[in-house]
């Protein structure tokens, strides 16, 4: 990774978000030449500018939906972390065309500009909700992945390596459920869960950064990477937080499913897992580089195993309440709230 980062200019789209700001801090610990933050929120950029206080960080105001803004941000970059997205599931349900404009069209603008400007590598961030999607956010992210793969397939001879990282819920990221639960517990309000048997992957921001680094280090164009992660039920997560913050055992309140919510999430479909390489802490799904000339493949199809299930939050390592508490205590924000 150091060989790719040393002396490089790294662009982070959506750079003022939870992942982007964590990635920026991580990169500044390397011998990076410049970290370029691209987002449309000037207030968050100003806050980030003051909190980082590093002359290597440059800020560009703009929107990935605007190709001219994207070109201005990409020009001169060596590497791109594409994190800009519309991420909230309920928002996508009510405004699906906005998810299309940002998650699909905006991503296409970034990929097109990266290839035209001969950027060395692009890592596009995706989500477990893109697998067997039932909501607009997941559907738009699935099409973002397909768009990235199409660019990788069409431009295999370019110097730009395009890859995708897909990950589950990032703990304590902006808009995630853990900060909400903590706020509810500390203020003596009910801890609202939608279904006690619902499961979710649990990944830290640091682990999400590690996943992107792994992609940059090892990717061949068109690769999709998944980091293996444990999961817990939403009920056990709520109870773990209540016990950590000395809340009341009867605080949990079931409120029913929200718009577009799933009982469990998948990081790999059954079809993807059948052809995935197991790389220890990660799965790698290589690009299907076949073209539309299917005549050969009617006679010589690809073998596919039907023995492997999809990789989901229901069949991954399941944490109990005590194990979930220990994992939560590794999160800096939780330790800060507990004054540890």
Explain what this protein looks like in three dimensions.
- Helix 2 links the parallel strand 1 (9-13) and strand 2.
- This protein has a domain at 2-168 and 204-227: Rossmann fold.
- It has helices spanning 2-5, 18-28, 42-52, 67-74, 89-94, 96-116, 136-154, 177-186, 205-218, 234-244, 270-275, 295-299, 321-328, 332-337; strands at residues 9-13, 34-39, 57-61, 79-82, 121-127, 161-167, 191-193, 199-201, 224-227, 231-233, 252-254, 266-268, 277-278, 282-285, 311-312.
- Helix 8 (177-186) packs across helix 10 (234-244).
- The radius of gyration is 20 Å and the shape is globular.
- The protein has a 9-stranded mixed beta sheet, sandwiched between helices.
- The chain is 41% helix and 18% strand.
- The model has no long low-confidence stretch (mean pLDDT 91).
- The chain is α/β, with parallel strands linked by helices and 340 residues long.
- By CATH, the architecture of the domain at 2-168 and 204-227 is named 3-Layer(aba) Sandwich
CATH topology of the domain at 2-168 and 204-227: Rossmann fold
- The CATH homologous superfamily of the domain at 2-168 and 204-227 corresponds to NAD(P)-binding Rossmann-like Domain
Number of continuous helical runs: 14
Judged by helices, strands and strand pairing, the structural class is: alpha/beta
- Total E-strand runs: 15
What overall form do the CA principal axes indicate? globular
CATH level-1 class of the domain at 2-168 and 204-227: Alpha Beta
Distance between termini?
33 Å
Give the strand content. 15-25%
Please state the average pLDDT score: 91
Query: What percentage of residues falls in helices of 4 or more residues?
Result: 40-55%
Low-confidence stretches: none
Biggest sheet details: 9 strands, mixed
* Side-by-side strand order of the widest sheet: 3-2-1-4-5-6-9-14-13
Order of helices and strands: HEHEHEHEHHEHEHEEHEEHEEHEEHEHH
Rg, rounded, reads 20 Å
């Amino acid at each position: 990774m150091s060989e790719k980062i040393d002396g490089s200019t790294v662009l982070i789209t959506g750079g003022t978000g939870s992942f982007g700001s964590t990635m920026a801090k991580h990169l500044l610990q390397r011998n990076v030449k410049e970290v370029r933050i691209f987002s449309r929120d000037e207030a968050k950029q100003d806050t980030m500018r003051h909190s980082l206080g590093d002359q290597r960080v440059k800020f560009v105001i703009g929107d990935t939906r605007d190709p001219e803004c994207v070109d201005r941000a990409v020009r001169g970059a060596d590497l791109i972390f594409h994190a800009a997205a519309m991420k909230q599931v309920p928002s996508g349900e009510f405004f699906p065309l906005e998810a299309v404009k940002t998650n699909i069209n905006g991503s296409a603008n970034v990929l097109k500009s990266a290839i035209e400007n001969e950027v060395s590598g692009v890592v596009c961030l995706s989500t477990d909700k893109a697998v067997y999607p039932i909501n607009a956010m997941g559907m738009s992210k699935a099409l973002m992945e397909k768009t990235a793969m199409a660019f990788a397939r069409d431009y295999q001879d370019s110097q730009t390596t395009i890859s995708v990282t897909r990950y589950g819920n990032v703990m304590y990221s902006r808009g995630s459920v853990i900060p909400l639960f903590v706020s509810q517990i500390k203020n003596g309000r009910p801890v609202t869960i939608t279904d006690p048997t619902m499961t979710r992957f649990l990944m830290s921001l640091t682990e999400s950064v590690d996943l992107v680094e792994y992609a940059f280090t090892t990717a061949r164009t068109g690769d999709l990477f998944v980091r293996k992660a444990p999961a817990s039920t939403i009920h056990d997560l709520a109870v773990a937080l209540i016990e950590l913050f000395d809340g009341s055992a009867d605080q949990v309140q079931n409120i029913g499913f929200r718009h577009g919510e799933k009982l469990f999430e998948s990081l790999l479909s059954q079809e993807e897992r059948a052809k995935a390489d197991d790389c220890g802490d990660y799965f790698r799904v290589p690009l299907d580089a076949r073209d539309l000339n299917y005549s050969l493949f009617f006679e010589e199809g690809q073998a596919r195993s039907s023995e492997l299930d999809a990789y989901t939050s229901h069949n991954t390592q399941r944490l109990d309440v005590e194990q979930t508490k220990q994992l939560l205590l590794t999160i800096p924000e939780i330790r800060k709230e507990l004054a540890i």
